[in-house]
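Predicting holo structure, flavin-adenine dinucleotide bound.
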Amino acid sequence: MNYDVIVVGGGIVGASIAFYLTKTKGINVLLCEKGKPPGDGATSISGGLIRVHHTNKANQYLSFRSLQIYRELMKNRKMDFGYNPIGFSLIVSPEYVKNLNNNVQYMNKLKLPTIIYSPQDYSLREKFINVENIGAISYEPLGGYGDPAKSSITFLNEALKQGLNLMEGTEAEKLLIKKDKVVGVKTNFANIYSKQVIIASNFWSKKLTKQLEFNIPLYTKRLGVVFAHTHNYNVLSHSYIDDTSDTYMRPLPDGRILIGIKSSDCNTNIDHLSKKIHYNEAEEALFRASKRFPVLSKAKLLGGRIGFDSYTPDQYPIIGQSEIEGLYLSIGFSGGGYKIAPAVGEFIAEEITGNKKTNELKYYGLERFKDYNNTYFQTSNMYKYM
Ligand SMILES: Cc1cc2nc3c(=O)[nH]c(=O)nc-3n(C[C@H](O)[C@H](O)[C@H](O)COP(=O)(O)OP(=O)(O)OC[C@H]3O[C@@H](n4cnc5c(N)ncnc54)[C@H](O)[C@@H]3O)c2cc1C
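Done. Tokens:
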């Protein structure tokens, strides 16, 4: 079996890459997914928040371009991502107001509608909020949320129409290397050969890359969301990240509320990690959310979901050609891959097909970790948690 490109992993990142690669005529693309798309990785668990606000220009640009893509493809090709532009707020404490203003400046340059609220003005539009300890709020009317699992399937279905070869139940077990070049993958099904292998297999990629001589700084974090129900249906009018208490939340279409739990490192074998949520961590998440929206203290907890994502030391992904020819990396999305995945797919496809090299991608290369403490992403405009 011979292909031009093999994509390993059918979560949102692999699916978006496959969609954009197959848009180019004459490229023979295979995607192998060890499970059933969208797989049982982070994409199927994700909170799905969509926002442009970040603390560096490159990621703002990737999020902005992704937002445009979600909107354009929905409109022009009727692709369903479950995107719901209910708005997104980033809430910061007084010491970070200057940083927030700086970050919004670039969003303004991108011509993204954004409003900065004082706590007083914000309380006029958010009747359930407690504005204690808030310095400022940045509000994006086009932010909100999407459905990551649906988005991934939508990209894959369209990619199939464009000629993608999809192999389900097919695990890339080993990279095939010949004369210092990656020439394909050994799978449980067959050996498959290609000019280029793109690894988009999240935290599992550690297994696949351990045969390489260079180190990829990737670690796994346990993340999760809990669900709650309150009789006040309009408590949350849109999606929020509250940096003052390291929490995020949004309404669900069925009236429930989704709240993020605290993430934690996990170093055990990733194949044996438990996906069970515990009542005390759900309670703790609800407690933090109810500090901002006090009526939530009476909400009923209705379970939750646990998932895992791969993180890098500066909490931004690794995207780019690796040190070995024939191997491209798109991993380490550090709890924020959904909102940037469309642009990542588009830019990678453009780079690999030789059409264009997007300037912003240069910041995401693996080589940046040669100086761990000084990567592009550690800006002076960061916040306490995000
Ligand atoms: C609880 C939670 C909440 C989140 N909330 C948000 C949010 O609000 N907004 C946001 O932007 N992001 C959020 N994220 C992060 C985002 O969901 C992830 O960054 C993103 O889904 C990662 O996508 P992926 O395709 O890289 O990985 P995955 O979705 O994990 O996909 C990797 C796929 O590769 C397959 N695979 C692995 N190894 C192999 C192999 N050897 N061969 C073949 N297939 C293989 C797996 O089966 C899997 O399907 C959240 C994540 C979690 C867990």
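The domain at 219-311 is CATH 3.30.9.10 (D-Amino Acid Oxidase; Chain A, domain 2).
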